[in-house]
Amino acid sequence: MFTVPVPRWDDEAAAAPEAPGPAVTQAIPAGSPSREPLATVPLPTFVPYAAEPPPTDTPTPAVVPAPALSRGTGAGTVPAEAEVDPLLGAVGVALFWMTVGWWVFVLVRVLGRVARVGGSDRLLIDTVDRYVEETIIAAILSVLAALLLLLSRGRSGRDALGWSALALAVVTVGVAVWRVLP
Q: What are the Cα distances from residue 164, in Å, to 102, 122, 148, 151, 158?
């Protein structure tokens, strides 16, 4: 047997919510493993298409293929913005900002080297030479960002962000070629 406290819901409990003295409890019988198991209830079976009426013998209309759409002018053309995938533009923006972040880290490394060692004429060369793999990956990411921003977003890709991604790609690839290739 278990005992649990029983709340009082009468007017006396409202007047004195915390009256001193023993709490009122009620005994609850404990479950015993010797009880009979509960009766199993059969689950309802699912019959697909049971609510739909049976098919009729009416013939179906013939399917007429749609005319092919071209990018030219005239009837049946698709506007340039209809083929734009917004996910590709978002990926391009993310890659662009990853490349910008890489350049920020290059700047932090250069400033850290200036603070530790002092300035020299080989400051940028030494910084890029230490992180050759990062330079190559940044060049690849910047080219992908420029391509995605300029080509996959339709006319909206040819805005300031698209052109700045192209400029950043040219600078990053230039630095990678300058330092990696002999």
A: 15, 27, 13, 14, 10
